[in-house]
Amino acid sequence: MDLVPHAGEWLVRSFKGYRWQTVRDETRRRYILNKYRVLLTRAREGMVIWVPRGDSRDWTRPPAEYNAVADYLKSCGIVDL
To answer: How many C-beta atoms surround the C-beta of residue 17 within 10 A?
Structure first.
């Protein structure tokens, strides 16, 4: 997941090689943020947002990060299916 909440902000990152890396280039950061803005504003009716479960056996999917994203979406009013 390239956008995760961290310390009250959104951590923008990319997967390179075999690990997540923080995106520091401002142009790339804006691109990633805009990607989500477009997705979340274009299909408001009938859209499903799927957040996969984290898996402690898979170091690329830490449960705390995936749960944080799911909790944030729920706090915005999105309902679990």
So the answer is: 6
Cβ distance 7 to 1 under 8 Å? no
Measure the CA–CA gap between 80 and 17, rounded to whole angstroms. 33
Partners of 47 in the β-ladder: none
CA atoms within a 13 Å half-sphere pointing along the CA-CB vector of 20: 14
The residues, ordered by sequence, that sit 6+ positions from 34 with a Cβ below 8 Å of its Cβ are none
Tokens of 61: 């999917």
Dig out the tokens for 4 from the structure: 């995760």
**What's the pTM value of the predicted model, to 2 decimals?**
0.73
Q: What is the pLDDT of residues 61-81, one digit of tens each?
A: 889 888 988 998 899 898 888
